[in-house]
Amino acid sequence: MRSLYFLLEKEFKQMFRSKGLLRTLFIAPIIQLILMPMAANYSVKNISLVIVDHDHSSFSRQLITKVTASGHFRLEAICANTEAALKEIELDKADIAIEIPDKFEQGLVREGSQKINVQVNAIEGVKAGLAGGYLSAILSDFNAELRLHWVQPARFEPAPVISIMPINWYNKFMNYYLFIVPGILVNLITGIGIMQAAFNLVKEKEMGTIEQINVTPIKKQYFILGKLLPFFVLSIVIFTVGLMIGYVFYNVYPVGSFLTMYVSLFAFLFALLGFGLLLSTYSETQQQTMSLAFFFLNVLNMMSGLFTSIESMPQWAKILSGCFPVSHFIKAMRMIMLKGSSLSDISFHLWSMLGVGLVFNTWAILNYRKRS
Amino acid sequence: MEAVISTNKLTKRFGQFIAANELTFDVYKGEIFGFLGANGAGKTTAMRMLCGLSIPSSGAATIAGFDVYKQTEQIKKNIGYMSQKFSLYEDLTVAENIRFYAGIYGLKIPEIKAKTIELLERLGMMNEAKKLVRELPLGWKQKLAFSVSLVHSPKIVFLDEPTGGVDPVTRRQFWDLIYYAADSGVTVFVTTHYMDEAEYCNRVSIMVDGVIEALDSPRNLKRQFEVDSMEDVFYKLARNAKRAEQ
Lengths: 372, 246
What we know:
The structure holds two protein chains of two kinds.
Chain A: H1 2-17, H2 19-39, E1 47-53, H3 58-69, E2 73-79, H4 82-90, E3 96-100, H5 104-111, E4 117-120, H6 125-150, H7 176-207, H8 209-214, H9 220-250, H10 258-281, H11 286-303, H12 315-322, H13 325-339, H14 347-367
Parallel strand pairs in A: 1-2, 1-3
Antiparallel strand pairs in A: 3-4
Helix pairs in contact in A: 1-9, 2-7, 2-9, 7-9, 7-10, 7-11, 7-13, 9-10, 10-13, 10-14, 13-14
Chain B: E1 3-14, E2 17-28, E3 32-37, H1 43-50, E4 58-63, E5 66-67, H2 72-78, E6 79-82, H3 94-104, H4 109-123, H5 138-149, E7 156-160, H6 168-183, E8 187-191, H7 195-200, E9 203-208, E10 211-216, H8 218-225, H9 230-238
Parallel strand pairs in B: 3-8, 3-9, 6-7, 7-8
Antiparallel strand pairs in B: 1-2, 1-4, 4-5, 9-10
Helix pairs in contact in B: 3-4, 5-6, 8-9
């Protein structure tokens, strides 16, 4: 145990002496956490719109006003014909084109129905989907208004209509920041934790100091513990700073208790740092570590439900995702943040993280050999 | 004489390649034992086996009375090691490096303090105690690394090309340190490519292609090969080596 004390002393000295590292470890995540939630936004605004109006009636003008007033669309141009509108899409100047047919108003009043031609530029899938969605919502709204004004109430029983009124639990106003801020925070902690834990040990391999350590009688579990604890502390500090930023800048704070949150953070870091360490036992140079870490971080970011939903993944991906400590931590985080879940509510995620962590750490210790 | 290193047909294979082939020799207490050989002859491999860093493929060896297969942890308590690569922490100060290694070898705090002062005084580096190791010239670093490898008063110290790239004056000072250590009863096992250094050793072994071709005192070796210098002894043996440089 005494050797652990000296190891920790050395690690902390090295950590505080490396000013450049501390700066990147603190300043960079803080800046990212302040800026990214504003920028990385799923709601689509400023969709460029072109309109071809063959009708020029008061109805068509009402429709145009309604679409542009929604805030989602920006009217780029009024085009004379379909070809001109498609040209705009082709030149990437427009995301969506609406074509209002000739005799739109007339037909609507007389026949009670009309068709509008909508063309969506689907190069950016998410944007296209949302643009189409917004537009149909606006059109159905327009429809309802028309009915109210022009169509006489049915003399007998109107056709039954089921209208849906969703209530958003846990995030009543669908505050986007409640979703994205924890996501980015966990993303940052994951990156820092894995990279630093992995780099630290590999640096000793590159410098050759590991050789010297290996001829000392130090026990390898103490050596590895000495490598992990400093980053454990560092990650907790960065997480705490991140929570404060979330509160100050985005008014995001946990409904649940901080105790629950930090208990799950502990379990998460145990698994995460173990994974970083495991990577380092498989690489000899920082370059190798970098490539490995880059690959895994990409997978973790895309498949852990930080920004997308795990439930919509195929079965194999769901199973895989269940092996990632990140998936469990982000789930637990959101439960604590939004629902105020207690330790017993998140116990499944806690045990999963501890289990995965135990596997990673044991594997790392076994794979770290003092002899060859 | 008491043998502190004793090997019997110690062998290390990497697949088909036999890096060290049936090494059998004894090293006695307080001796300065020169371990010579061309690049790629298998010196470092042999030394790594003796330090418990590498598991032998076959053969037997005891270091300070402990078995290289089963008692590596006891061996580690009793040996010092200075590798080819510089192995102190560049971002720690001289005193911090001493403190760290003394600490993980289990020295008590007052012992560490006394040892630090003793060591720095012998090296004449009292004024450098608070300097980062990275700021020291290479020769000083090597002397410091040697002293640190002795911090826990080991029975044997293994030096793998300790004076590579060091100027002649500093090399001389380095060998003064080696003599000082040997006088106090530490056995010194040293590899080198400098033949003047080989002359300083009590006994010298020369490895060629994984095999020990010669082992005796420098004087006897020169007589045996009928040459005037160790340089010529080495040349006579090593020019027949088949292994390319590493």
